[in-house]
Amino acid sequence: MGKKIEELSKKLKVSENNMKKHEVISRNINNLKELIVKFKARKKQSLEQQILSGLNTLLHKKGFVKKVEVELIGEDIDIILKNARGEEIRKESLSKGEQQMYATALLRGLVEESDIQFPIFIDSPMQKFDEQHAENIVKYFYPNISDQVVIFPLINKELTQKEFDFLAKHISKTYLITNVHEDKSEFSPIDPSKFIETYNRLYNVN
User: Does a structural domain hold residue 8?
Assistant: First the structure.
């Protein structure tokens, strides 16, 4: 009988210890959940500010977008733009250039908030931009979005000499993709200071 009582006592102690462990784990889980909620709230607010700042820098219609709201829907996010009257600006109502500016500001905000300096590759960079938007992009966006940015422009169409000059001090290397024959192209390194000049000479651009 005494042995059984001893065994029961041990089981009770083990059960009590397990209960204490369970309480500690549950408390830590709840604390972690609260931290995640607060972290998401801070990131949400910071992303809103980053996108709004980007739009104010890039758009030439200053004050057009007065507020940016980020809505967290499960693992997805929805971005809402609002004007000075608090009305939602439908993204489909934006011009093609403005839509590209919005996408650019969103990309910049996400890169900033990720805290990861990954390479950014941009194809057809200024296809839908007017002159002022293009100037804002090359002055304020490309030099700052990441430590390494690779741009694939159509020379003189998407990147003029003037725009290239804005970027010049930030450019490390330039290459021309030249056609060797119908089945082969290659990257030819060009001195950045002679890049546009070399392109114009090779393709007989006046």
Answer: no
Distance CA 76, CA 46 (A): 17
Kindly write down the DSSP assignment for every residue of 179-203, as one continuous string: EEETTEEEEEEE-GGGHHHHHHHHT
Instruction: Please name which of 122, 178, 109 lies closest in space to residue 150, comparing C-alpha atoms.
Output: 122
Mean pLDDT for 100-115 is 84
In a domain, 158, yes or no: yes
Give this prediction's pTM.
Answer: 0.64
pLDDT tens for residues 3-33? 555 565 555 555 666 666 667 666 766 666 6
Name the 3-class secondary structure at 71.
Answer: strand
Confidence of residue 190 (pLDDT cuts 50, 70, 90): very high
Nearest to 191 by CA among 206, 170, 176: 176
152's tokens: 């694939």
Q: How many Cβ atoms are within 10 Å of 95's Cβ, its own excluded?
A: 11
Instruction: Give the residue from 130, 182, 180, 127 showing the smallest Cα distance to 151.
Output: 127
User: How confident is residue 176, by pLDDT bands cut at 50, 70 and 90?
Assistant: very high
What average pLDDT is seen over the chain? 81
For the record, the structure tokens of 179 come out as 């056609």
Pair 136, 126: CB distance under 8 Å:
no
Q: Could you list the residue range(s) of the whole structural domain that residue 197 is in? A: 117-206
Q: How many domains does the chain have?
A: 1
Whether residue 77 is contained in a domain is answered as no
